[in-house]
Each structure stands twice: as structure tokens, then as C-alpha cells.
Amino acid sequence: MAGPIERSKNLLKQLAKPSKFQLEAAKEGLLLMLWGYFLKIVLADRIAIFVDTVYGDFQTYGGWYLVVATMLFAFQIYCDFYGYSVIATGAAKILGIQLMENFDSPYLSVSVAEFWRRWHISLTSWFKDYLYIPLGGSHKGKLRKYLNKMIVFFASGLWHGAQFSFVAWGGLNGLYQIAGEALEPLRDRMVRLLHLNRSSFGHKLLQMSLTFLLVDFSWIFFRANGFREAFSIIRQIVAVKNPWIFFDESLYQCGLDRKNFQLMLIGLCILLFADFCKKRGICIRKKLMEQDFWFQSVVLVAAVCAVLTFGIWGPVYNEANFIYFQF
Questions:
Q1: Is pTM beyond 0.85 here?
Q2: Most CB atoms closer than 10 Å: which of 2, 142, 233, 308?
């Protein structure tokens, strides 16, 4: 019911022939589910408390409050969506069903185009195969290619909801890609003139930072309750000057106290470390499965206890409260 939008040619043939239980696949599936629970109830639901507090009263929490909340929302929606995709993938693996990868370290992308190749891969590839290519793709001239990309991103916005704010979010990401491609010759020329090394860590870090800022700005339209509210939030970000909130502990008064705020930052560091390893081709899950049984057991018990201890759950928790369940 939820997870990657799997293709019938891959899924139906797996359902047609039941798979025998395999211990190693079940262990890997449980590890995936555990990672998904960490992303959802330790990170996404903790971040949501801060984001909902600030966005729920953006007239009061202006300026840097909104900047921090917007940056955190980027990780909230990532952890929420990535989390339930991983849980679904892990549950399927236990049953002997292989689902496609839905996220591939998207916030480590060096361009918006790369971001969309790594974000919600199953939907992006679906739009490419069933909308972009039938429209002509990139084979009917540059202007037609740009038009096709805008159509795809407008459709992606409408897929999330019949609101102009979603359409604006999709259109903005389409414009990012068109601008990036159109300005590529100019960027190449600047690199040659300034003798920049595109393979250096500093250059890639700058590209990742700029990509994140562009994508994060578009999330404002996704998170706001309508187009007008999105512009009101942007005005509040620009108009209010309050950099002192980083020094007077004001950030600890937005739903998360000091300990929970710091725990959130630690969790984000774990996420970024895991994504960095993944981008470098290092699978932490497989590395763990190669270790001795006693070591695996200690790590798993510690991880389960950490998720149960630091997760946001309990009698008032809404277990169906996944952001993408509404789309």
C-alpha cells in the first residue's frame, strides 16, 4: 500500500511465484525496517514538532526561526518519506520480494537535476517513461525539451495536490533545471577563467550547498498552506532580522527543549554519515551482516533500544501520520 511505485514487470512476476523463506534476506529486511523506524520516529517526528510550531505561527516566528524551520523541513520530509519507503522495502524483503531503491542520498547532489535523479526515484522514472518521453523528450529541439520538462514538473506538482502552491513548487524545480542547463556554457567558461578544480572537495561542497538552498527554498511552497501563505513566509524571512536567536537559546522554545534539539542534530549527523557512505558505495547494512553474530546482536539490541528510547511514540502518537500518505 505504501512504498516505491514499483513497475508491474518487476513486481507481478515476483508475486506469481512465492519465494521460500531465506534467513539472510529476513535479517537484511529487519535491518532496513529498523533504519526506517529511526528515520521516521526518531528524526522525522521530532523535527516535525519544531517545524509545525514555527510554521503554525509564522507571524510570531519570523526571520531566522523560519530559515531554520525551512531547512529542517527539508530533512523532515526526507526522513518521513525515505523512512516509510525503507520500511516497506524491508517488509517486502522479508517476504522474498525485491523492491527498487527509492532514495539515493539526494541532499548530497551537486545539481538540481541530479537531486531529482536521486529523490523519489520510482516516481521520477515513472514520469520520465510515461510523460516526458511520450512528449518527445529531448529529441525535438532545445525549446521543446524545456517545455516538456516544465510539463512534467507541473504534472508532478498537481500529482501532490490540486493547489497552486504545489504547482509553483513543481514549476520552480523545473525552472531550476532549465536554468542550470542553459547556463552550463557560462559556468564552464568561468571554471576555465578562474582555473577551478571541479573535482575538489571545496567545489563539490559549494555545489551541494547551493543545490540544497535552491531545493530547500522550493519546499516553502510545498509546506505552506497555500500560495499566499508561502509568500507571507518568504516576506517574514526577509523582513525580520533576528540572528541573536542562535545565541540566546530561543531555538529551544519552539517545541523542542535543549536535549531534544541536540538529539535531533545528532540524528541528522548519523543520517548524513549514512548517506555519505552510501554515495561512496559503502553499504553499512551489509558491512554489519559480515560481522560475527555476537557483534551483530550487540549493535541490533543497542539500535532497537535507542529507537524505543528516543523515538516519538506513545498513546497520543498517530502511527498513520506519514506526510506522503495524503498524496
A1: yes
A2: 233
